[in-house]
Amino acid sequence: MFRTLSQRVWPSRTVLVREKHTLPDLPYDYNALEPVISAEIMQLHHQKHHQTYVTSLNQAEEKFLEAKEKNDLKTMIALTSQLRFNGGGHINHSILWQNFSPKGGEPEGDLLKAIEANFGSFDTLKNGLSSSAVSLQGSGWTWLGYNKSTNSLAIATCSNQDPLEPTTGLVPLLGIDVWEHAYYLQYKSVRADYVKNVFKIINWKDVATRLATARQ
């Protein structure tokens, strides 16, 4: 899913081999989230939009590494916005697919305790996330994140495809994508209906696992 560097050793030298980022498989079928999100939207969102971020990220990384080898600082700086946008798109959507589940459900255990400690109740958290997502101007994401320094949960928004942790320092637990391509074919311009319904397919077990990992 995410690119890594591997070593191949020959008798006289060691060569680093770059492996490209790849589009992750969904953990469910495209129609599994219906009627909340249609199969058509899921297929376009995954195969077209996420794949474009992956392809563009690989291209930007190759150009960046070529510029680095030439010590071409101007080109390296010029490429940072492409790396942030496409890299963020890849990171964000890789989390999003795992945040969804056809089974839905509600938070429980340590996650529910953390929600109640920070927001008072699960309903208050949902209202806060919903308000943030609906009122976000333009394209972007609303997140539930974890603050390691204060051991607390927080709601945050990021514009465009800015990734949460590099932007705010919060560890991403749950993301709501409010780019129009995530809902427009089904909900048209009524973002509020999309945001309301998306809570029916949240994979709270995945959110809980992310919180437990972030606390380690």
Question: Can you give me a brief rundown of this structure?
Answer:
The protein has 216 residues and is of the alpha+beta class. Helices cover 52% and strands 16% of the residues. The strands form 2 sheets. A 3-stranded antiparallel β-sheet has the order 4-3-5. Strands 1-2 form a two-stranded antiparallel ribbon.
Structure description:
The protein has helices at residues 39-69, 73-99, 109-119, 122-135, 164-168, 184-187, 191-198, 204-215, and strands at 5-10, 13-18, 140-147, 152-159, 171-177. The chain is an alpha+beta fold. The strands form two sheets. The protein has a three-stranded antiparallel β-sheet with strand order 4-3-5. Strands 1-2 form a two-stranded antiparallel sheet. A hairpin with a 4-residue loop joins strand 3 (140-147) and strand 4. Helix 1 packs antiparallel against helix 2 (73-99). The two termini are 23 Å apart. Residues 6-10 have low confidence and may be disordered.
List keywords for this structure.
5 strands, 52% helix, two-stranded antiparallel ribbon, 8 helices, 216 residues, globular, three-stranded antiparallel β-sheet
Order of strands across the main sheet? 4-3-5
Sheet with the most strands, sense and barrel status: 3 strands, antiparallel
Q: Give the percentage of residues in beta strands.
A: 15-25%
Pattern of helices and strands: EEHHHHEEHEHHH
How many helices does DSSP assign? Answer: 8
Uncertain spans: 6-10
Given the helix and strand composition, which structural class is it? alpha+beta
Percent helix range: 40-55%
- What is the global morphology? globular
The end-to-end span amounts to 23 Å
Number of strand segments? 5
Chain-averaged pLDDT: 94
Rounded to an integer in angstroms, the radius of gyration calculated over CA atoms is: 19 Å
